[in-house]
Specification:
21% of the residues lie in helices and 41% in strands. It contains one helix and nine strands, in the order H-E-E-E-E-E-E-E-E-E. The strands form two sheets. A six-stranded antiparallel barrel has the order 1-7-6-5-8-9. Strands 2-3 form a two-stranded antiparallel sheet. A hairpin with a 4-residue loop joins strand 6 and strand 7.
Length: 135
């Protein structure tokens, strides 16, 4: 009677498992680094509304300023939106070809007509969703 044996030794199988685990770990770290560096919390999404000519606003310090637009919280449906954004101020991005403005948290992307994904989750809470910049 002939015994059937495995053609690979336990040491060889162990090395193969280590290489596979190392490769999977590198792939995971790569995607985590992409997510961490290009994804930012959304503080609010606004829709800009044009004000009547010669309109003025009163700021938090009772200073009167001229204004062309007012930003009102937008009502969006939950979902993912492919957009193009341009940074117009610190943590403020204009969605090109729309009346929408996105306010982010701790976002330092200096973008100009950059493709992005708006992952809108809800209209309440600390974060309304995520803004993901596409490279």
């Amino acid at each position: 009677m002939e015994l059937l044996t495995n053609s690979t030794s336990p040491k060889s199988q162990n090395n193969k498992m280590k290489r596979t685990a190392s490769t999977l770990l590198l792939i995971l770290l790569f995607f985590v680094s992409l997510y961490a560096s290009d994804t930012y919390d959304i503080a609010q999404v606004y829709e800009k509304q044009e004000l009547p000519r010669d309109a003025k606003i009163l700021d938090n310090y009772d200073n009167i300023k001229e204004a062309k637009y007012i930003l009102l919280p937008a009502q969006l449906e939950r979902g993912n939106y492919e957009i193009t954004v341009t940074r117009i101020d610190t943590n403020i991005y204009r969605v090109e070809r729309t009346d929408f403005i996105i306010e982010t948290k701790y976002c330092y992307e200096y973008s100009h007509y950059q493709k992005a994904i708006l992952m809108y989750e809800n209209s309440h809470g600390y974060s309304k969703g995520k803004l993901v910049f596409v490279k």
